[in-house]
Amino acid sequence: MSTNKELMQRRSNAVPRGVGQIHPIFAARAENCRVWDVEGREYLDFAGGIAVLNTGHLHPEVIRAVEEQLKKLSHTCFQVLAYEPYLELCEILNQKVPGDFPKKTLLVTTGSEAVENAVKIARAATKRNGTIAFTGAYHGRTHYTLSLTGKVAPYSAGMGLMPGHVYRALYPCALHGVSDDDAIASIHRIFKNDAAPEDIAAIVIEPVQGEGGFYATSPAFMQRLRDLCDEHGIMLIADEVQSGAGRTGTFFAMEQMGVAADITTFAKSIAGGFPLAGVTGRAEVMDAIAPGGLGGTYAGSPIACAAALAVIKVFEQDDLLQKANAVGDALREGLLAIAEKHREIGDVRGLGAMIAIELFEDGDAHKPHAALTAEIVARARDKGLILLSCGPYYNVLRILVPLTVEKAQIEQGLAIIAECFDEATQA
Asked: Which of 112, 128, 311, 382 has the most CB within a 10 Å radius?
């Protein structure tokens, strides 16, 4: 049996260094909230494959649906021979995505692909070229989504300039001194200095930023953004790739914002670990592109569609939206207790079970503590807990534990985090 060290060496020889890896571990098997590595060591998974496993590793209902579909057909390409699971899933998502208007849904394979298609659709519908994105945004690693992503290193470092006609507004974040007024003013500065509103096809925003640090917009800001888009005929695109599929306590975070986007993207947890993503939007907007302009060979595969239908069924049967809020409350309470002992924790935040803490040197919000963040991640791993960091300054610890986690496992994870902070701050 190979060891983690041996496999890491093989990886170094076979895989480009640009494919990062947070933990020097090779997983062998998993179940719900637990993972075992190739050496047989067990870990509690608070990362969830980066927000992919809201229903846990290998949920029995998901596996059952996939096995049944696999006995029927695995692939035809929907554009050649259609199949009912694709259609059924689109019908359900047309109802679940916020917005009191007729909708249509396109299924693709990855979050980046969904965002690319969303902008493509907005451009076709408006006959405009420009897009506004926000500071701290993460929308993908494909060429155009790298223009939308608000972080050069490591995502586009050394690759030269990305495609143009993308303009950067400020994402509202009171913790770092950016008010709603500041954010709206930054959009008006774009209109004044860079691109007229009649040249902007879409404003793309994460209602809760993912890689950007788990900052959530306020409903008041989203209402102002909605009004601004309506005033100028701009498509509002909500990127719910990470915040969607129940993570925030509603199936989509925009349900908590009081307004609906024209176009919504989703991916990650929608299919419980199987590659699936999509775009749902106003029917007339989604129809702006002629037949043949949308799709993909593996887009909306029968296997992934069957998995997604099972995920939605599990959410309903197991009341996972309520569980998301309960998990979030437990995590928030536990992390606030840890923060009382450690001034380095400057903020505990999140919607539903999309929870994060931000670390600062001596509690000074002007001094991000990336080193301590990395140390906590490493110490937790050594104690059997898998964590992730994020944020523009690498000083945010985020928790994306499956919503199917048991109460004892939440307590175990919080105890490990507390122990890591005690050790790291006393060292």
From this structure: 311
Superfamily designation of domain 4-58+319-426 = Aspartate Aminotransferase, domain 1 (3.90.1150.10)
Planar angle of CA 304, 53, 326, nearest 5 degrees: 130
Q: What CATH architecture applies to the domain 73-317?
A: 3-Layer(aba) Sandwich (3.40)
Assessment of whether the complete model's pTM goes beyond 0.70: yes
**Mind listing the pLDDT tens digit for each residue in 110-131?**
999 999 999 999 999 999 999 9
